[in-house]
Design brief:
single chain; about 675 residues; mainly alpha; 5 strands; about 5% strand; globular; disordered N terminus
């Protein structure tokens, strides 16, 4: 990865060559006018969308005389200095230094991580996937690890988090690097318990710092305080190991207050000595987090004297954990970020978390208003725009159009695509952009504009293959009588491992001998598997095989991903749920406990949890976080409309003939006893 960031500053060169070619060929006035127009396009585009172009130019700048003083610093301090520049908001200094560190230490995961963070801060995150996909092809474990981390960091693939988890437990990959990167991502996603488990076998100040944060996030403040004090004794020049002690908005316990005082005292001592830049930076980090303004300013001045151009603020932005917790509290108490003494960037982040939490809790009317308020503070945040569009569509579906507005969802999704268009290099696949196009298509379908939806889905699939997009595309193609195109779309969904794609393809395509070859050919086109017919795990259609014909067939069909459940239960409990629904997440563990007891008692009763999540990623994260076994899970968002499911949780009890014998709407713990009694009565009735 020689000279990351270099060689890209001239991205506009092909335009210039094209203009000269036109002038040379024609030599006439129209060609000259066309040349001027073509030459003007990139300049106009850069004027409107400066972030990516500026990032390219910044990456190729040479060092100034002041920056040259820190070029030859050791790796550890260089990485910290990149972080310091980023906290200052000085990307122009951080990115060249990160380039230098990576060029000097290409085998260091710390240098790679610093460079990735600097590139993301520059607004050119679209480069990362390309760079690391290319690097990973050399087969080096470090490069493969960093490629997996970048995929998970950018959310480019639902399975990327699982891949990083496997690497963290595989001895072939750098153990400390994989563990720290994996734990950081888990903490950012709120999976604090798993993060703590991942850190237990790792030593050092950085894993220790993360473990303190995880313990605080789990509300184990006393353990967190004890751990922080131990780390401060072990690493007296790293007071930053205790920054997690401030990741709480509640009243601190006596032990927590004592640990905080100890950390501030250690940091104060380092500021007074003022001899080592790295120790000063960590002292500033702790003091700025603790809101010790005067001491933090002293640390910043001492650092500025050692590193010209470094002027750190007296207070740090809120950590991601604290933003997540505070945003959730604001959502549930009806509070507003305006009431808190936080920076503008923190207020924007808190508003976004508040809106997402309200949507997850099913408070759709409040969520829609919260998204509007958050977007007023961050109108070009593509992720927030996409989430707001999703909320509009969810409200439209679950409230039967009384809340959400598909036209507004369409506008929001288009704004998200426009914001992403400024960051995505032409020709580079982009899952977020494809997802924005998919949202547009779903909104257009809700508005009855099916031709426009068809065009949006074609563009989405061209950008990033996705089973949900292919399935919706196939449905629209069938409506327009495009049978062959629908077969191709379903084959692509099947090649991506989607069970519904296989079932629907078997219904449409009447050539059993060519079925596997059709799916394998689609896989080969997508570049996800070899084209050998036997290499794809698909079901061969046959007259004897029964294919799901309706929503209840999909629900009651056997799921190959299930362990320990039978195919024909006497009683089937169907729990409709979604990852954003907190009552659902409370209900499912109780149903799993009942299913375990029914199995012990030999009742022949089972539970199928049917997720109505439109996207696979939140569904997978919710399943991983719950850690529930012994029940069957399915993700079937398409059955909601056909079965009239307009809210969750809803639980049905079916007998062996598939007849609904009981319904429960919402979740109440007292209903579990009633449900258990009904299941036992039905099981006895059908013996």
């Amino acid at each position: 990865m020689a000279g990351p960031g270099q060689g890209h500053a001239a991205t506009a060169l092909p335009w210039g060559h094209g203009a000269r070619w036109l002038q040379h060929v024609s030599g006439c006035l129209p060609a000259l006018l066309l040349s001027c127009l073509v030459l003007a396009i990139p300049a106009l585009w850069a004027a409107e969308q400066p972030s990516a172009q500026q990032a390219e130019l910044t990456a190729s700048r040479s060092y100034s005389a002041e920056q040259a003083r820190v070029r030859d610093v050791d790796l550890a301090w260089g990485v910290e200095l990149v972080g310091a520049f980023l906290l200052q908001g000085n990307v122009e200094s951080a990115l060249p230094l990160a380039n230098e560190l990576l060029a000097s230490h290409p085998d260091s995961w710390l240098a790679h991580r610093a460079w990735v963070r600097a590139v993301m801060a520059s607004g050119a995150s679209w480069r990362l996937r390309r760079e690391y996909s290319r690097l990973a092809m050399d087969g080096q474990p470090l490069h493969q690890l960093m490629a997996a981390w970048v995929e998970a960091l950018l959310g480019e693939s639902p399975s990327s988090l699982d891949g990083l988890e496997q690497m963290a437990s595989d001895s072939r990959y750098p153990r400390r690097a994989a563990g720290v990167l994996w734990a950081e991502l888990l903490l950012e996603r709120g999976d604090d318990e798993t993060a703590l488990q991942a850190l237990q076998t790792l030593d050092g100040p950085e894993p220790g710092r993360l473990s303190v944060q995880a313990l605080m996030a789990l509300e184990r403040s006393q353990l967190s305080a004890t751990r922080a004090v131990e780390l401060l004794r072990q690493y007296p020049r790293r007071p930053d190991v205790a920054v997690g002690l401030w990741d709480s908005s509640g009243k601190p316990s006596r032990s927590l207050r004592a640990a905080r005082r100890r950390a501030v005292s250690v940091a104060r001592g380092l500021v007074e000595s003022g001899e080592e830049p790295r120790a000063l930076f960590h002292a500033w980090e702790l003091l700025a987090t603790a809101r010790e303004g005067a001491l933090a300013r002293d640390a910043s001045r001492a650092l500025g004297a050692l590193v010209p151009g470094l002027d750190l603020p007296p207070r740090l932005p809120l950590t991601s954990t604290l933003i997540r917790d505070l945003g959730s509290q604001l959502a549930r108490t009806g509070g507003s970020p305006d009431l808190l003494d936080v920076s503008q960037s923190d207020a924007r982040a808190l508003s976004a978390v508040r809106a997402r939490t309200l949507a997850e809790d099913g408070e759709l009317a409040a969520a829609l208003e919260a998204f509007r308020q958050a977007l007023a503070m961050a109108p070009r945040d593509w992720a927030l725009l996409s989430q707001a569009a999703e909320a509009e569509l969810k409200a439209t579906t679950l409230s039967q159009g009384s809340l959400g507005d598909p036209a507004r969802a369409l506008d929001l999704a288009r704004m998200a695509a426009a914001a992403l268009g400024a960051l995505v290099e032409p020709g580079i696949p982009s899952r977020p952009l494809a997802h924005a196009l998919q949202i547009q298509a779903r909104a257009l379908v809700a508005m009855g504009r099916r031709e426009d939806a068809l065009a949006a889905l074609v563009s989405a699939c061209a950008l990033q293959p996705d089973p949900a997009s292919y399935l919706l595309l196939a449905s629209l193609q069938l409506e327009f009588g495009l049978h062959d195109s629908a077969v191709a779309s379903l084959a692509s969904a099947a090649a991506l491992g989607n069970a519904e794609g296989r079932w629907r393809l078997a219904e449409l395509y009447e050539g059993p001998a060519d079925y596997q070859a059709l799916v394998a050919a689609a896989a080969d086109t997508l570049g996800i598997a070899t084209a050998a017919p036997g290499s794809i795990d698909v079901e061969e259609p046959s007259p004897e095989s029964s294919r799901p014909r309706g929503p209840m067939d999909l629900i009651m069909g056997v799921d190959s991903g299930t362990s320990g459940v039978g195919a024909q239960p006497r009683v089937l409990v169907v729990a409709f749920w979604a990852s954003w629904c907190r009552p659902c997440l409370q209900e499912l563990p109780g149903l799993a406990n009942l299913a375990s007891q029914w199995s012990v008692d030999g009742l022949g009763a089972e539970v199928t949890a049917v997720s109505l999540d439109q996207e696979e990623a939140p569904y997978r994260r919710a399943r991983r976080k719950m850690g529930i076994t012994g029940i069957r899970f399915k993700r079937l968002p398409e059955v909601a409309a056909e079965l009239g499911i307009n809210s969750v949780p809803i639980t049905w009890i079916l007998d062996s003939r598939g007849e609904i014998r009981g319904r429960y709407k919402g979740y109440a713990e007292k209903n579990m006893k009633s449900l258990d009694r009904l299941v036992r009565e039905l099981a006895e009735e059908q013996q």
